[in-house]
Amino acid sequence: MTGNELDQQDVLANYKQEFFVEKDTVYMDGNSLGLLSKRAEAKLHSLIDSWKTFGIDGWTEGEHPWFTLAENMSARIAPLVGAKAHEVMVTGSITSNIHQMLSTLFQPTPDRFAILVDDLNFPSDIYAVESHLRLRGLDPAKAMKKVGSRDGYTLKLEDIIEQLTDDVAVLLLPSVLYRSGQLLQIREITEAAHKKGILVGFDLAHSIGAMPHQLHDDGVDFAVWCHYKYMNSGPGGQADYIFMNVIIIYCQGMQDGLVLIKHVNLIWIMNFPKHKVQVLIKLAPLIFSVWLLYLAVWSCLKKQGFKQSAKSHFS
């Protein structure tokens, strides 16, 4: 059977019509930047129209109110990584999310001070780990360990497990090696690392949207990824991250990566002083309750015809 015949029988073949493809072009760069879809173009125009029509009221009005966009997108993305909707947050970029995750999870001690990566990981991930270690006053030459490759393209499971030594606090690996397409054994690696008391994170940039994941069931502690490759969100598209079993402090944005976290005692994100974050966490239930009451009262006023324009309401 020829390739053309196989294409004709492919149940996904019709989806090619969903994308803008230059005539007489075979697009092979989806692993770097996915093509624009016709539905995405329509959605972009729709959101621009919301801004044009509603102004600041667009936060709560229109078909897609901006106020709940992050939660709605998280709910739609969660099944792609095997997570729960409340665990996912769309924000930032892969690099910034790596920094945020390490700021939260990586708590070096005299005995456990190393972050384990691999020789084949995407360079920007390595740069992020190096710079984060320097911010912590650690020497990357000593505190960043690497799993070596025997052939320059792939990694062996036994080589990864061998590097899970007692001085390693966090393991950060790609789900798929971008040079070879090798899919790492996420569950086996996670189980082996947890037996050594090591937190495990994966960069899913080269697998999200191309294959299913079960991060929750696999026990992964955190993960990051982008949406501009196989997720076709466009250049500059936001990232995702997930927090599990903790109070989430949301940051504005919708671009590049996801993080799944299970073992967090204190969320320390961005440049918040630690004591202010502790106060925010303690006050979070009260703040949330007051905000819900505010929305309820405003909703009642709207129904009774007393709604003021959000232009004056929020100014």
Short description:
With 315 residues, the protein is of the alpha/beta class.
Helix-strand makeup class: alpha/beta
The ordered H/E elements are: HHHEHEHHEHEHEHEEHH
Which strand-content bin applies to the residues?
5-15%
Helix content: 25-40%
What is the terminal separation in angstroms? Answer: 66 Å
Rounded Rg? 22 Å
Count of runs of 4 or more consecutive helical residues: 11
- List low-pLDDT spans: 243-282, 306-315
Q: Averaging pLDDT over every residue, what do you get? A: 80
Largest sheet: 5 strands, parallel
Number of strands: 7
How does this model look, in words?
This protein is an alpha/beta fold and about 325 residues long. It contains 11 helices and 7 strands. The protein has helices at about 5-10, 40-55, 70-80, 95-105, 125-135, 140-145, 155-160, 185-195, 215-220, 275-305, 310-315, and strands spanning about 90, 115-120, 145, 170-175, 200-205, 220-225, 240. The chain has a 5-stranded parallel sheet with strand order 3-2-4-5-6, sandwiched between helices. Strand 4, helix 8 (about 185-195) and strand 5 (about 200-205) form a beta-alpha-beta unit. Helix 4 packs parallel to helix 5 (about 125-135). The radius of gyration is 22 Å and the shape is globular. The termini are far apart. Mean pLDDT is about 80; it is low at about 245-280 and about 305-315.
SSE topology sketch:
Elements: H1 3-9, H2 38-54, H3 69-81, E1 88-90, H4 94-105, E2 114-118, H5 123-135, H6 140-143, E3 144-147, H7 157-162, E4 168-174, H8 186-195, E5 199-203, H9 215-218, E6 222-224, E7 240-242, H10 274-303, H11 310-313
Parallel strand pairs: 2-3, 2-4, 4-5, 5-6
Antiparallel strand pairs: 1-7
Helix pairs in contact: 4-5
